Amino acid sequence: MKTHLPKIDVQRRAWRVIDAKGAVLGRLAVQVSDALRGKDKPTYTPHLDAGDFVVVVNASEVVLTGNKESAKSFMSYSGWKGGERYRSVAEVRAKHPERLILHAVKGMLPKNRLGDRLLTKLKVYPGAEHPHSAQQPVPTAYAG
To answer: N or C terminus: which one in the chain shows less Cβ crowding within 10 Å?
Structure first.
């Protein structure tokens, strides 16, 4: 018995569009990370990049449950002494709403070179418009 390793055809990656309007952030991030890794395909292999490209639109209209809008905060560090900066979800949503989804999905991907490569296949846009119509993306329903 030999272990079968699937051949990943890079030319045949699909493009998916997911509408984040009214979607719960964590549940949406799980669906997006599974599509990026290829976990919903029968040829899933943990150490290979077998997933599809994912375009998330309407990122500014994603929903957080409970009081996370005011209580949850994002920390960034400049590298300098005293350079910690905390921002609430409301502040991040006002300036860069796509970072909410990027941060949630990045936390669900592997913390290695594969995870970095997978994250480049994620495209997030705050509105309904996106420049990837030439790739003929397939609309994927949010199942949350």
So the answer is: N
What does pTM read for this prediction? 0.91
CATH architecture of 12-140: Alpha-Beta Complex (3.90)
State pLDDT tens for residues 41-90: 888 889 999 899 999 999 999 999 999 998 999 999 999 999 999 999 99
Buried b (16+ CB within 10 A) or exposed e, 2-36: eeeeeeeeeeebebbbbbbeebebbebbbbbbbbb
Dihedral sign, CA of 61, 111, 36, 33?
Answer: negative
Parse the chain into domains and list their residue ranges: 12-140
In the chain, the amino acid numbered 89 is V
Query: Which residues have CB under 8 Å from 59's CB, separation 6+?
Result: 20, 97, 98, 100, 101, 124, 125, 126
Q: Which of 101, 85, 88 minimizes the C-alpha distance to 33?
A: 101
- For residue 69, which amino acid is it? E
